[in-house]
Design brief:
It is a single chain. The chain is of the alpha+beta class. Helices cover 20% and strands 42% of the residues. It has five helices and 26 strands. Strands 1, 3, 5, 6, 9 and 10 form a six-stranded mixed β-sheet that branches. The radius of gyration is 55 Å and the shape is elongated. The relative contact order is 0.08.
Amino acid sequence: MASRAEPSGPSARGGGGAGLLPPLLVLFAAAALIPRGDGQNLVTEDVTVVEGEVATISCRVKNSDDSVIQLLNPNRQTIYFRDFRPLKDSRFQLVNFSNSELRVSLTNVSISDEGRYFCQLYTDPPQEIYTTITVLVPPRNLVIDIQKEIAVEGEEIELNCTAMASRPATTIRWFKGNKELTGKSEVEQWSDMYTVTSQLFLKVGREDDGVPVICLVDHPAVKDLQTQRYLEVMYKPQVRVSQNYPVQGLTREGEPLELTCAAFGKPQPTDMRWLRVDDEMPQHVVVSGSNLLISNLNKTDNGTYRCEASNAVGKSHADYMLFVYDSRAGEEGSIRTVDHAVVGGVVAVVVFAMLCLLIILGRYFARHKGTYFTHEAKGADDAADADTAIINAEGGQNNSEEKKEYFI
């Protein structure tokens, strides 16, 4: 809020407005000059409005004692004296009138309405403050001009965006897709209006084809004002060679090979051809459009095969290196892999069988050794004394002889 107070004498109050007052209002004005005490003041605010919209001016009194309030235009003509409008401009309308406020609206505001409007209070001494109406004008037009409608990748192109007849001068921002870029702006003033032109230099690549370049305006009178142009970029072909057959397998003697060449560019490539690098193309090679076919591979086919594609912008290529393996290549490796697996399985089975046999033999010997010791002591338990036990024990001398005779 901007409040300013300017003391002024009664002779200054009349200005151009006093001549428009009828006799009765002149008497009211004279009566208002009678001292009514001090301690009163006026309050108002500056007004900012967009051209064509409505501005509201408010003159407010604190500690009102019924003094007369009036509103004057920048030419000091009286717009309202109390609730009476002597100025014949129907765009001014009374919104509120009381002892403490005079509020007036101004419709369809134009640049000519900009300036200071005075609130006056007839006290002794009289009081006066002013409010400033500022009129904003949005840009009349927003245009992007591209130096070249169709660019070639690697070129630097110039773009210009112009925002015409705005007030105040606008700020222009550039975007390529979602990325903000930096341009250089120039401002021209015509009377009270401003025209701004922003210049942008942009180096384009194939990835910019079809991407929008956006010119956006920052201005207090307008929101989301923007315009855009889509880039059109020409680029040379991108070439890719793929192996259709064998699918991710070895290229072996006696088997077929099929290759496909794919090319993309702008404009679309019109010329595509196959060649063998550093050697002639074998006679048994069949080329059909983008496909290359060798029905029966042999070692003489080894080499680098190239697919070339071109358009109006340039030429590109992709290479395929061919190495022909022996007809049994890959099979021997598979056989060796199978043999190793079989041998490993057999070894595992043998080891497992030997472990089982060792466990069984261990248990057998342990059991028979315990039985031998038990029979050797048999009969000793029934003897009356130690000597008898030794004589009666199986394994004694007599038993030994019996065993010897038994075995004989």
